[in-house]
Each structure stands twice: as structure tokens, then as C-alpha cells.
């Protein structure tokens, strides 16, 4: 399947109207994609696949990665056809209707709160392992820089993501190399597992590719160079796939399926030694931080969009929206109501269905009643009706499986 794009004449007036003062570089845009995707999901998918095994996980990483990239390109074209800077809920309201807008906003809320809850919980556990702090104190230490950059806005997020993503990639390369010179590393471990439990893994993988939510924010940053938006999306998603595959591959090859913790880097670091224990868990903290900024920033912007709050120019409105973003996840993380992996699983089920359907409807509406002819649009191959049917079928089937597993009618995988 080709992701080839085609280019059309741009409207200079539209481009000027879309240009904002917070421009992103290409590297910053790619880093936002990678940083948002590489969060709690990369730490949990090894544990989530401990019954299915690595090969079913790899299968879903390919399938979900391809289809998520396609739906992200749908959103990208829709934003470029719209003069006003709208988030997903705003795009849904304009091109699908009020019900679609609330459905999309609900998806943003569920996915973001599920993710940020997992980050609060996971960061507390990691800092407890690293520094011996109580989980709540560790989460608070994580929260301060996470919320601080979020408050500063899009450009601060882009720059911070760029620095942290570079550090994560270097650290991961070091850990990956160390894993494969260990005598106890067994590639045969990658072939173990039971394909019967592959479906539950899908929903956690869906969560790992969660950067659809930040495409409108990226479009704002690329409004002066729209041709770079789809390229940044594709490059970011390819890098995401490599990193998402590398972490569980290393952990499972080294430890086997029976010895994986919910936060995989704890097990990974313990198996490699003291230096790796600290390195792996610092990587995990950076991954959570980078994803917190991407999803938190998107959630913040969607709140402003949905309720028509000027969060860019009115500090008190921004503060109120920030409280909605950051406080519920902290409370839920220590409520005992939801575990680290279950937070991601639940978020993946709901948001996966919405994000499989809504971008198609938004793009259809944008092509009919958009404001301008964009300088880039999706290739016909990825907007073919057969592609859309496959995407909807896979995501709906997974949701049905998830509901059935809650009533113990099918294996839950956990």
C-alpha cells in the first residue's frame, strides 16, 4: 500500500490566514509524533503480550501502525482544508455535526485521561525503584516538569520533545546492544506464546499509536510549510514502529514471557545489571514525559476548542483547562480503581473505534465544504473504500471482543 502523496496549487491567502507565530521545524514535528507515541504504551506492551507472545505483538504493530498512519493523513488533509485552527473535536463539529464533536471529544478525554493516569502511576513506581521514594511523591516529582512545559505551549513542547527523543533513542540503542551480548538472551523466546490471546494485545497497541490527537497541533506548527506535515507524520510513525518493536523484543528475548513486570523496563534493567537498571528506567521516565506533553497538550487544546475558551491569551482560562487535564489522572492513579495496563487497555478500546471512523467522516466533509484547496492531499490508494472497510472492521471486531472478555465470554489475555 502506498503512502505516496500528490500536490495541488495552494491558495496564498489561505496560507497566510493559517500561518501562526509558533512554527515547528521538521525535526520538532517528527519528535512530537515519536514522543507522543513512545510513552506508557512502550513500557506495557511486553507485559500485555506475555500470554500471546512477541510474534502476535509484532503482527499488530505492523497492522495498527499502517492503518493509524492512514487515518492521521486523513486528519492532516482535513486540517489543511480548514482556515481556522481547529482540534479534532472542532473538526468533527464542523464536518460531522454536534454529535460527532462530542463523540470525538469523549474519545480525546478517555484516551488522554487513561494515558495520563498510567503515566502518574508508572512514574511513581519507577521513581520508587530508582530513588526509594513513595509512589505518590515520585509522581509529584514527575508532574512538576510535565505540567510546566505543558503550560508553556506548542513551541516549548516541540523543543522539549526533540531533546528528549534524541536521548531516548541513544539510550535505547545502548540497552538493545547490551541485551544481545548477554549469554542468557534467547531469540527462541520470541517464538513462544499462544496466538489465541492475540486480540487483547491489539487494544494496547492501538494506544501506543496515539499521535492522531496531535495532528491538528502539528498542522498549526506547519501552516507555513504544509507539505512537510505528511512527511513528518510518516517519518515519525516509522521511527515509532522501530522503537515499539525493539523494547518488547529485547525484554522478551532476555527474560522470557514469564518474567515481565507491568513496567517492562524494571525487569529489563534488573536483568542487565545496575547500570542498565538506572538507564532503562530513566528511558522509561523520558518516554512517559514526552508522551505526557503530546497527549496533554492535545487534551488541553481540545478543551479550549470544545468550550470556546481562549486558552492562548487568557491565563486564567488556560489554568482552568490545565486543572482539568492534570488533576483527575493524579487522583485516579492512587484511587485503586484502575491498574497501569488496564488504563491503557480501556483507553485503547474506546478511542480506537472512534478514531477508526471519525477521520473518514471528517475528511469526507472537508472535501465537500472545506475553506481552501490545500497544497497537499491524500493519495487515492489510501482513501479507497476497501481500505476504510478493513479499518472499521478490525477496530469494531476488537471492541466487540473487549466487551465479551469483560463478561468472561472470551479470553481476556490478562
Automatic annotation (TrEMBL):
It is a multi-pass membrane protein. GO terms for biological process: amino acid transmembrane transport. InterPro entries: Amino_acid_transport_2. Keywords: Cell inner membrane, Cell membrane, Membrane, Transmembrane, Transmembrane helix, Transport. It is found in: Cell inner membrane. Its main location: membrane. The chain crosses the membrane at residues 26-48, 54-75, 95-120, 126-151, 163-181, 193-211, 232-254, 274-295, 316-337, 343-363, 389-410. GO terms for cellular component: plasma membrane. Pfam families: Trp_Tyr_perm. This is Amino acid permease. It comes from Winslowiella iniecta.
Amino acid at each position: 500500500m502506498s503512502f505516496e502523496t500528490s500536490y495541488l496549487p495552494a491558495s496564498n491567502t489561505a496560507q497566510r490566514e493559517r500561518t501562526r507565530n509558533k512554527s515547528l521545524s521538521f525535526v520538532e514535528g517528527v519528535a512530537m509524533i515519536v514522543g507522543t507515541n513512545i510513552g506508557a504504551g512502550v513500557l506495557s506492551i511486553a507485559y500485555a503480550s506475555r500470554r500471546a507472545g512477541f510474534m502476535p505483538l509484532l503482527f499488530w504493530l505492523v497492522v495498527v501502525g499502517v492503518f493509524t498512519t492512514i487515518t492521521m493523513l486523513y486528519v492532516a488533509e482535513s486540517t489543511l482544508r480548514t482556515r481556522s485552527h481547529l482540534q479534532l473535536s472542532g473538526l468533527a463539529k464542523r464536518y460531522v455535526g454536534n454529535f460527532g464533536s462530542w463523540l470525538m471529544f469523549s474519545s480525546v478525554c478517555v484516551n488522554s485521561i487513561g494515558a495520563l493516569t498510567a503515566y502518574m502511576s508508572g512514574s511513581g513506581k519507577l521513581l520508587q525503584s530508582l530513588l526509594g521514594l513513595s509512589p505518590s511523591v515520585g509522581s509529584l516529582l514527575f508532574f512538576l516538569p510535565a505540567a510546566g512545559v505543558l503550560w508553556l505551549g506548542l513551541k516549548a513542547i516541540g523543543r522539549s520533545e526533540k531533546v528528549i527523543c534524541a536521548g531516548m533513542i541513544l539510550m535505547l540503542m545502548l540497552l538493545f546492544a547490551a541485551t544481545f551480548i548477554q549469554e542468557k538472551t534467547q531469540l527462541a523466546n520470541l517464538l513462544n506464546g499462544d496466538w489465541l490471546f492475540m486480540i487483547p494485545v491489539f487494544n494496547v497497541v492501538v494506544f501506543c499509536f496515539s499521535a492522531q490527537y496531535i495532528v491538528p497541533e502539528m498542522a498549526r506548527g506547519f501552516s507555513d510549510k504544509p507539505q512537510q506535515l505528511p512527511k513528518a507524520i510518516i517519518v515519525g510513525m516509522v521511527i515509532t514502529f522501530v522503537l515499539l518493536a525493539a523494547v518488547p523484543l529485547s525484554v522478551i528475548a532476555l527474560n522470557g514471557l514469564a518474567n515481565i513486570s507491568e513496567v517492562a523496563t524494571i525487569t529489563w534493567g534488573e536483568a542487565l545489571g545496575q547500570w542498565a537498571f538506572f538507564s532503562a528506567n530513566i528511558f522509561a521516565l523520558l518516554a512517559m514525559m514526552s508522551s505526557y506533553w503530546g497527549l496533554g497538550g492535545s487534551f488541553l487544546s481540545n478543551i479550549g476548542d470544545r468550550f470556546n475558551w481562549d486558552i492562548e491569551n487568557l491565563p486564567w482560562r488556560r489554568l482552568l483547562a490545565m486543572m482539568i487535564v492534570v488533576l483527575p489522572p493524579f487522583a485516579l492513579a492512587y484511587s485503586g480503581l484502575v491498574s497501569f495496563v488496564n488504563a491503557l487497555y480501556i483507553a485503547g478500546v474506546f478511542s480506537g473505534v472512534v478514531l477508526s471512523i471519525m477521520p473518514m467522516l471528517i475528511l469526507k466533509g472537508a472535501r465537500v465544504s472545506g475553506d481552501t484547496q490545500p497544497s497537499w492531499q491524500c493519495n487515492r490508494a489510501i482513501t479507497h473504500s476497501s481500505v476504510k472497510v478493513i479499518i472499521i472492521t478490525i477496530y469494531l471486531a476488537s471492541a466487540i471482543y473487549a466487551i465479551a472478555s469483560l463478561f468472561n465470554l472470551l479470553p481476556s489475555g490478562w
